[in-house]
Design a protein that fits this description.
With about 850 residues, the protein is α/β, with parallel strands linked by helices. It contains 27 helices and 37 strands.
Length: about 850
């Protein structure tokens, strides 16, 4: 059978793989208008953060050669002759077919405003588009995206990654208007603007003209304007149906090749799949429905008459400019009689849409925290009854308690929508010998596209392995057949103080990049020894090796500790004098400290010697340790304050400074419930009331924000410190490698109620032991930088070249806003050439 496929995007490639996997003799020719075979458009933004075109490639190695498929790159099809059953391409003669598959995808919609075709106005669709945008961005300062939907925000992330001042222009009154409601859209806008992008809503672009200060001027219908250096159109997509339309195949009023449930057009020998296809009046703009169409078309082409495409779930979970966003099912509550449950604060927005009888989940919206996406999606897709109190699914205090459990999922439950993998298929693969998540991915392709289903797939794997009598493997790595918790206890009980001793007694081999830093953290937590002692130094990550954060240009940052954000004028003067002396960039951080950036490695000891002499100590900005304790001015100055938050913050930071943990730790102390220190977004948060202190735990900001849970209230200072001691040491002992307190709590059986019993009620009888361990840390604390500059052996490592004291000549700065910044690539090249 002669099969011709027009298009080699993700969906076209999936069709080929499905066809080849099912066997048979086929003469297959594939036409691709791009210069490279299929790549992952879903992850296209990652191209700007370092992933290469080859890393984005989704074609298995030597796939076309092994399958005998003819691939025509850089060769767009120009016409289809339905009567003669031939296609004509730009570079090759006519190619005949028995079956034709059109997988031409979609093209970006460019609003037909005057000036849309000016130079430096782009679309965001292919790697070639990205390469041109990246090249133009080098000489630009301001970039603007027209379109505030999924694709628009992806494009905005790309412009931010290129270092541009970024604007998003959206016609609708909110971002992602198709997926989100007004409240969710407002929170998403606030979060994205905090990240540095400017959002312009309800703006209709009337024309694009010559700018005065920048290259372009966007003139809006309301009379306002915006100047920018480059414009990226990402205002939606349009099906690529022009070949079908010219050939006489019926298309929809708004585009799309009409297909039936077998993915056939009105011509039974011509199939259409993916974003170019129109099924039941709908075009599906996600990759998962396209994959389903690809499988249906392949199976039907091979003679399976009963296979059908019956629509697809359009739920989606993604990270937009670092913000988790998810939309599931009937997110807007359009079902008659639907009811809604909403939880919102300044960090997250969660909404459930349930049936009128409160028995079934119809849809959901998650912004800021999409960790519940897998559970909620399965409850929408499968007839799983809601818990008695549906709000338990989204309320923070009960997070993780009202789940469905993987055992309740039917075998038909679709776990991986991208690749159409059900729970039953995963269980079958496990029964056939897949005993790790990697093997499960390879065998079923689950979690190999967007990756969103990986946690659920791992839960199913663990549950099935336990059913079969296997002990679930929580080994740290191939060198240690123990979990981090087990290694911690081995180190503590056996008084092991060196990695070599631990691996000789309880491991094998020489260790790796996984176990060495993990063991280094455990040793530091247990014994609080200098991390750059000869036996410990080789275990550390890059930042810990130099007691500083490595920056993108090869220089380092210096962040002295400023407990509670309180600093003497004399110390401010020292920091300013050092910045001038060494030409450092200075910035006040979001954690009430001063960051000095741009120090070369050989300068670090000299700078820190002056800082230590002035009374500063290491701020541990580089370590998995306590970073800061943020505070407001409290009752000392504020007319609303009810407790002295500054004194408490300083006391806490002084007590817990240098504490090494599985992940970094941040704290906050607010002097009243107005919460100016944002304590409820910290690992440990303390809020003053008229009756004492309320203690919150396991919150965090970052890539996956989480609201902290109330652990205890109305505490005096002594109780508060005792509970924090116990909480921190319990976390240090029991958390997994690189596990934040928020994730640790979500995985802790019994959740916040169990943690409250352990910490506040001493249900395990280990309270005194945990307090003693913390007191041992407090008594043995030493400033790492003070120790480093007093130890000649350690100072030897602070040089750029092993055999020379010469500095790195490739570190080049340019002036901007009265300070220095790292030179861009073209600026560095220019200075090096003129040197």
């Amino acid at each position: 059978m002669k099969v011709v496929v027009i298009g080699n995007g993700m969906v076209g490639q999936r069709f080929l793989e499905q066809l080849v996997a099912r066997g048979g003799e086929h003469d297959i020719t594939v036409f691709c208008e791009e210069p490279r075979p299929a790549y992952d458009r879903v992850q296209l933004t990652s191209y700007f953060s370092g992933r290469t075109a080859s890393e984005l490639n989704v074609v298995p190695e030597r796939f076309f050669e092994r399958s005998g498929i003819t691939l025509r790159l850089n060769d767009p099809v120009q016409s289809i002759d339905l009567e003669r059953k031939r296609v004509r391409s730009a570079r090759y003669r006519d190619v005949p077919y028995d079956k034709l598959v059109i997988a031409t995808g979609s093209s970006p919609f460019v609003p037909p405003v005057p000036g849309h075709d000016r130079r430096d106005c782009f679309v965001y669709r292919t790697i070639e588009d990205l390469e041109v945008i990246a090249a133009k961005a080098k000489g630009a300062r301001v970039g603007t995206v027209i379109g505030g939907g999924l694709l628009g925000l992806e494009a905005a992330k790309a412009l931010k990654d290129l270092g541009l001042e970024t604007h998003v222009v959206e016609f609708a009154p909110r971002l992602m208007s198709v997926q989100l409601d007004d409240a969710a859209g407002r929170l998403l806008r606030r979060k994205i603007e905090v990240l540095g992008a400017r959002i312009h809503l309800q703006k209709s672009t009337r024309e694009i003209t010559e700018g005065t200060g920048r290259k372009h001027r966007l003139v809006f219908a309301d009379g306002t304007a915006l100047e920018t250096d480059l414009v990226v159109f990402s205002a939606g997509i349009r099906p690529r149906d022009e070949l079908a339309r010219a050939a006489g195949l019926p298309v929809g009023e708004r585009g799309g090749i009409r297909i039936n449930s077998c993915c056939q057009s009105t011509n039974p020998d011509v199939y259409a799949i993916g974003e170019c296809a129109l099924w039941e009046g709908r075009v599906f703009g996600l990759v998962a429905p396209g994959y389903q169409m690809a499988e249906v078309a392949a199976r039907h082409l091979l003679g399976e008459e009963n296979v059908q495409f019956l629509g697809a779930d359009m739920s989606t979970k993604l990270k937009l400019m670092g913000v988790d966003v998810a939309s599931i099912g009937d997110a807007h509550g359009s079902t008659p009689g639907a009811l809604s449950y909403v939880y919102t604060d300044e960090i997250v927005y969660k909404k459930l849409v349930v049936s009128q009888d409160r028995q079934h989940l119809l849809g959901a919206i998650l912004v800021g925290d999409a960790s519940g996406y897998g559970t909620l999606l399965q409850m929408v897709l499968n007839p799983i009854p809601l818990p008695r109190h549906p709000e338990d699914l989204i309320l923070p205090a009960r997070e993780g308690k009202a789940g469905i459990g993987v055992e309740m999922l039917p075998d038909s439950a679709l776990v991986c929508s991208c690749n159409g993998v059900s729970k039953g298929a995963l269980c079958a693969a496990i029964a056939d010998g897949c005993t790790s998540l990697g093997a499960l991915k390879k065998n079923t392709k689950a979690a190999t596209s967007c990756g969103g289903c990986a946690p659920l797939a791992k839960q199913i794997l663990d549950a099935e392995m336990k059913k079969r009598g296997f002990r679930v493997n929580h080994h740290l790595c191939e060198h240690f057949a123990y979990s981090r918790q087990e290694l911690f206890h081995l180190v503590k009980i056996n008084s092991i103080r060196a990695f070599d001793v631990l691996i000789a007694r309880h491991g094998k081999g020489r260790g790796c990049d996984v176990c060495k830093p993990a063991v280094a953290s455990i040793l530091a937590s247990c014994w609080n020894e200098m991390i750059l002692k000869p036996e410990h130094a080789p275990l550390q990550d890059t930042n810990d090796r130099f007691l500083a954060n490595l920056q993108k240009d090869g220089t380092y940052s210096i962040v002295p500790r400023v407990p509670g954000g309180e600093i003497l004028p004399e110390k401010l003067i020292v920091l300013g004098a050092l910045a001038k002396k060494y030409g450092l960039y200075t910035k006040i951080t979001g954690a009430q400290r001063i960051d000095l950036l741009g120090a070369r490695v050989e300068q670090l000891p000299r700078i820190w010697r002056e800082l230590v002499d002035a009374g500063f100590e290491s701020g541990h900005a580089y370590g998995k340790a306590l970073r800061t304790v943020k505070s407001c001015v409290g009752s000392t100055w504020c007319r609303y304050g009810v407790q002295d938050s500054v004194k408490l913050a300083i006391d806490l930071e002084t007590r817990y400074r240098g504490l090494r943990a599985p992940h970094k730790l941040k704290m906050g102390v607010s002097g009243c419930t107005r919460e100016c220190a944002e304590a409820q977004g910290k690992d440990v948060g303390v809020i003053a009331t008229e009756h004492g202190w309320n203690l919150y735990v396991c919150g965090n900001g970052g890539m996956k924000p989480r609201h902290a849970d109330l652990l205890a209230k109305d505490l005096d200072a002594e109780q508060l410190v005792r509970f924090i001691d116990r909480f921190l040491m319990f976390y240090v002992r029991t958390a997994d490698r690189l596990q934040r307190t928020s994730v640790w709590l979500e995985n802790l059986e019994g959740g916040i109620d169990y943690l409250r019993k352990v910490v506040c009620e001493d249900s395990l009888g280990i309270g005194a032991e945990l307090e003693a361990a913390m007191q041992g840390h407090v008594q043995t604390y030493e400033c790492e930088w003070k120790k480093a500059i007093e130890t000649p052996e350690i100072l030897k490592r602070f040089r750029h070249f092993v055999n020379s004291d010469e500095p790195d000549r490739n570190v080049i700065f340019v002036a901007e806003r009265g300070q220095v910044r790292p030179a861009r690539a073209e600026e560095r090249d220019e200075q090096l050439e003129s040197a």
